[in-house]
Amino acid sequence: MKLKSKHQFLIVMFMTTSIISSGQAEVNNPFGLVYRGALTENVPGEVNIHPVTYKLNGIDISANVYTPANYDSSKNYPAVVVAHPNGGVKEQVAGLYAQRLAESGYIAIAADAAYQGASGGEPRNVDKPANRIEDIRGMADFITQYEGVDADRLGLLGICGGGGYSLKAAQTDKRFKAVATLSMFNSGLVRRNGFMNSQLSTIQERLKMASEARALEAAGGEIRYTADTKITDEMADKMPFDLYREGHYYYNRTHAHPNSTFRYTMSSLLDLMEFDAATNMDLINQPLLMMAGSKADTYYMTDKAFQLATGTTEKELFLIEGATHIQTYYVPEYVEQAMSKLNAFLGKFL
């Protein structure tokens, strides 16, 4: 791939490679959770976590269900499906928001995507939009059958890449009665055009590479992945975008988890690069809340999708004052802002 500058190289590297670094923090939580304030044990009468597995199209899915304090299976509770970011796992930000939702009285589920995290599926780290959308529907299948869940009060929260896939799921799956996104990331748009349209000149070259990778897989050859690049703190500090610079520290330092990786099969690009979360937004007729940091360099994706959501009469764009994209994942004051708005939204519509 011909690159014209170091700046362009850094952008391409972060958009197409997995981020792997040494010195990741050890996970000491008994449930594998890495977020601040995570549950360490199930105490009667308090919010509890329930690791579960279920089948989705023949694949074992690993998930955590969070139940509210004094949970009584004979009662009816609203429930929320939480979809994790690209490269993320259920033990990180998805788990944090699922736990906070349970603290607010909801039954919440966060699952690892098929082919990723602790879920099954081979080859590892396939990352196709259709799979991610099916993961969200699969969570809905499971949680609406869970004891105590009122299937008519089902909400959806998608974070980062999970936000884009949640928009697509909600366009057609009307089991979701209220839809929310946090720091929405339009995976297909970025995989195709690059972040802020930084890779327009290499689209055809990258499609050729993805096609060759698919051909190699079909012939029984090796599974090609986007290059595994070890990123140091010094390299990350020079990144031109907050998203990738702060993402390095979140995923590889402060909230590292061994199952979390941005690596994905190169052949996945054949599906990713034709995907756009913002198409058919008029099909969403459910109440819609889209949240983003006021300083997030990814905000343009949320704004575009929100403007195209013409099919619902109940929609709100909420800016988390002072926050960048990654900071909405863990900084207490920004999480509080997001949860306060989310609780008001879900409380009204569920």
3D structure, described in words:
This protein is an alpha/beta fold and 350 residues long. The protein has 11 helices and 10 strands. β6, α4 (161-172) and β7 form a beta-alpha-beta unit. The chain has helices spanning 6-16, 93-103, 129-143, 161-172, 187-193, 203-218, 233-237, 242-254, 269-272, 299-308, 332-349; strands at 18-20, 48-56, 59-67, 77-83, 107-111, 149-159, 178-182, 228-230, 288-293, 315-320. It has one domain (6-349): Alpha/Beta hydrolase fold, catalytic domain (Rossmann fold), CATH 3.40.50.1820. The strands form 2 sheets. Strands 2-3-5-4-6-7-9-10 form an 8-stranded mixed sheet, with helices on both faces. α3 (129-143) crosses α4. The chain is 35% helix and 18% strand.
Q: What would the average pLDDT be, to the nearest integer?
A: 93
Number of domains: 1
Q: Superfamily at the CATH H level?
A: Alpha/Beta hydrolase fold, catalytic domain
Quickly count the helices.
11
The percentage helix is 25-40%
The chain-level structural class is alpha/beta
Number of strands: 10
Distance between the termini: 50 Å
Query: Can you tell me the CATH architecture?
Result: 3-Layer(aba) Sandwich
Element order, helices and strands? HEEEEHEHEHEHHEHHHEHEH
- CATH topology type: Rossmann fold
* Beta-strand content estimate: 15-25%
User: Which of globular, elongated, flat, extended, rod-shaped describes the shape?
Assistant: globular
- Using the CA coordinates, give the radius of gyration: 19 Å
- In what order do the strands lie side by side in the largest sheet? 2-3-5-4-6-7-9-10
Top-tier CATH class: Alpha Beta
- Poorly predicted residue ranges: 1-24
Quaternary state, please?
Answer: single chain
Largest β-sheet summary:
8 strands, mixed
